[in-house]
Each structure stands twice: as structure tokens, then as C-alpha cells.
Design brief:
The chain has helices spanning 5-29, 33-44, 57-77, 81-84, 88-114, 118-127, 134-142, 149-161, 163-178, 186-215, 223-241, 246-259, 265-290, 296-322, 330-338, 344-349, 351-356, 361-389, 403-409, 471-482, and strands at 412-418, 440-446, 449-451, 464-470. By secondary structure, it is mainly alpha-helical.
Amino acid sequence: MDNSLPSLLLWIAGLLLASVLASKASSRFGVPALLLFLAVGMLAGSDGPGGIAFDYPHLAQSLGIVALAFILFGGGLDTRWEDVRPVLAPGLALATVGVVITGGLTGLVAARVLEWPLLHGLLLGAIVSSTDAAAVFAVLRSRNVRLPDRLRSLLELESGSNDPMAVFLTVGLIGLLVDPQMSAAWLPILFVRQMTVGGLVGYGMGRTLSAAVNRLRLEYEGLYPALTIALVLLTYALTDFIGGNGFLAVYVAGIVMRRAEFIHKRSLIRFHDGIACLMQIVMFLTLGLQVFPSRLPAVAPSGFAIALFLMFIGRPVAIFLTLAMSRIRFRERALIAWVGLRGAAPIILATFPLVAGVERAGQIFSVVFFIVFTSALIQGTSVPWMANLLGLSLPETAPSRDPLDVITTANRELLEFQVQAASRFAGRRVLDLGLPGGVLMVLIDRKGVAIVPSGSTVVLEGDKLLVLTGSNEASAVRSLFQA
């Protein structure tokens, strides 16, 4: 391979373009996109026709950590608190207790099947203990399968919050393997410290993110995405530096920021959604390059056996035990158990033993890769079928309607107000007007010029304001502007 800059850029552009085009096949045939991204990386690698020699576990791990941080932040920013609050208890139980049970059962079986020492088997179980529901939702969207809101919210919360637990278990077990003198008694202390620090820093940085976006008053709108990127990296690095879980911190920061009101909110959410998609492609391409397909046949029988146990026994047992005291119905538990795709986090975590120099690290990486590939192929393609079998697939939504028709038939009202000379709103930003939640200022008529306001738009004396509100909030909005 030519190492010149034009050649390097050509390869990067070609791989990204191939991955984007592969995602079209994912939408059409219901195959999880991560499988296709990994396949593109494997084909471009040293064992494939691309012939790119790539064996840099440190680089793969670093890229994976950064990518996962942005994916989790984007997931948090996409999470509506009012949706996840009703399922907070079962979601957190699945993200902690469920992960421990899944990893423990899988680790015991892995040690038996592979004839490894117990700690090595438990390490493999910890690595594959977390789920990646992003691929599932992509399949559901492509097949027009809709789940009940409560069930969908629970899956989103679990998949977004269970990676920190898997990271904790993996790092803790690697510490025990690297330093045999270390006692396992320190793991509970490490867990409390990492989760507490991660949660607190995430909450504080989420508040800081929204405040910084509102108060800095940057000259160009394009600088706001750069600001949030810097603060996301700062959140992860600061949390990790002081001994917390950085992945939990960035996820919590995203959720907290989503709850706040800040300027350019919609554009920043769309931006980080795009960043998350790009990070997924980069991550899976890199990890696809890191794997050597020629080594997979040697671990295929044992890897397939462990994958089957994980899908049909390990994950279901963990789900039913964790949710035993909840009100979630049997059919919903069965679907949650099946929607347990292994994806981004396990393959990234599989690089940790390589970097730490753990014995059997190469075998662990190959087995984990095989388990992820098998899980995504079998479970990912069958999720719509399983949802229909269990009677949890809702009918397709009605065709889209004209927005004005929706407004007039959905208990919404368009109100018009004029800013008087003595009004306390004159000279203030839309963000600072104190509009109730769910109320949107859609237009400002300023001396005959129509302005579509953003949160940073300053309201002036004489402006005519067009406000969209629900019927329940209409009286409060009228009182606000007439005060």
C-alpha cells in the first residue's frame, strides 16, 4: 500500500463511501449495519483483497474509546427524560445486575468450553456482557416495526447505560490477571467510586454544557458544535483522570443537556447524531481492519457454542431474574431477552487485554469478534420476526398530514402578541422569556419582515410574535404576555 497522503486519503474516502453504501443494503435487507461495516474493514485488511496491514491494538483502542464516548453522548442527547423516567428502575437494574449475571454465566461456560482458567473465562464474559440496541432500532425502522413506547424506552435506556458496567468488569478483571497479588475485595470499592464520580461529573458537565452554549454568545453558529465536541472530550478525560467512569459521565451529560433549554438545540442534536453515525463507521472499520479472518476458523466451534449459550440461555436467564419483581409482562421480557445484540462496546473492550498484555488476549479478541458477528447476524435479522411472533409489533403509523391540519386538530393554538414599549420582554432573548414547556415561538413580524426565531433571537419593541401553544397552556401564555 502506498503511504503517500493522496493514497491515504483515497483509501479513507473509499472505505467511508463503501460503508455508507453498505448501510443502504442494511436498510433494504434488514441486516445490521455494523456487520457490513465490519465486513468492509475485514475485506480491506491484510487478509482481504485490500491488503492494508493493520495490527495496532493501542490505536484501535484509542479510536474506539473516543468513538464510544461520542456515541454514548449522542445517545444521551437523543434520550427524552420523560420517556425513560417511567422505566428508570428496571432499566438501571438491567444495566447493572443484568450485565453482571450475563457476564458471569457466559464466563463460566466460556472457561469450560475453551478449557481456560476461570478468570480468563470471566474476562471474556465481562467483555460480551453489554448490548448494542442501535443496530436493533435500525432494523426495526427499515422493516417498519414499531414497539410500544414503554418497551422501546426500556431498551434505549438499557443499551445506553449498560456499557459502563461492562467496562468496569473488564478493567477490574484485567487488573486481577495482570497483578495476581491484588485482592478481589477492592472491586466493590472501585465500582462505587467509578459510578458515583461518573454520575456526578456527568450531571455537572451536562449543566455546564447547556450554560456554556447559552452564555458564551459565540460570533458564528458553526462554533457551537466545536464547543460541544471540546466539552464532551473534557467530560470523559476529566472523569477518567479523577477515577470515575468516563462513559457513564458522557451519557449522563447528554441526558442532562437534553433536559435543558439552550440555543441551537435542534441543530446541535442533529449534529451529534451525525457525529455518532460517523464514529460508528470509523470504529467498526478500524476494528474490522484489526481482526484477522484467517484466525477465526480456529475459534469458530467454541465461539459459536458460547454465542448460542449467550443468546438462548445467558441473556434470557439474566433478563428474567433481573425483572422478576417488575410488572413487565412475560412477552415483553422475552423480546428484551432476544434484543441483546453484541456490537460496539464488546469489540472495543476486546482490545483492552491486547493492550494490557494479558495471556490469551489474541484468542479473546478473536472469540469476542466471532460472538459479536454471530449475535448480530442471527438476532439482528430476526428481531422483526420475534416482535411479530410475540404480538408486540404495533401497526404502522398513519400517513403524514399537512402541518396546518395537525395544528387545528391536535388541541394546538396559534396566538399573536405585540411587544409594547413598556413590555419587560423588549430587549430579551427568546430563550430568556420563560415560555412554558411545549410552547414554541414560530415567527416574529418585525416591521413587515418575517423572522424565524432561534433561542438567541432578541425580541424588540414593536415586534409581533406568533406563538404555537397547546390548549392547556394557552391561558398561561396569554397571562405571561399581558402582564
